[in-house]
Amino acid sequence: SNLSASQIKTGTLEADRLKIDGVTLDTNASGQLIISENGVDTTQIANGAVNTDQVELEAVNKLADAYTAGGEFILSNVTETVQTISITTTGSPVQILASGVGSLASGNFAYVSFGIYRDDTIVRTMNNLSMATNNNRSETIVLRDTPPAGTHTYTLRATASLQNIHVSARYLSAQDVKR
Q1: By the 8 A CB rule, do 133 and 108 touch?
Q2: Are 167 and 71 in contact (CB under 8 A)?
Q3: N or C: which end of the chain has fewer CB within 10 A?
């Protein structure tokens, strides 16, 4: 016979499996809860049914980032790495955010360009930012990359032209977006 809610008062209900509205709840050999053999789809989870505390750390995304406020000089016609991060990705898209500030301390005119590299391969470069003496120029790069699964090193590189450039406020982040 069927069990109704009026028959459950207090205590523990024990069963090998429990089926509610077509969804089977069970446990695996380790005692971890599994919900049907094929997992859970969006039709089985109501809005607001799962909160942040119930999602395992890095289950949905993974972030790596670095920021350096201090500056360094980039010599004219030289490309230098100004920020580096490493991240292990799943093969899902990776959101990249990078920024930096270039300034010209002396001389009349110069350019700086920033580029993002993954494992020494250029992913994106920004056009030259022109600047005059005592003029700061900032640049922000946002992009989506789809690297193969594995550990990757992303670098932010700066190239100076015509004059030596001072680069500061360097930020680089990579977020593996699993879902």
Answers
A1: yes
A2: yes
A3: N
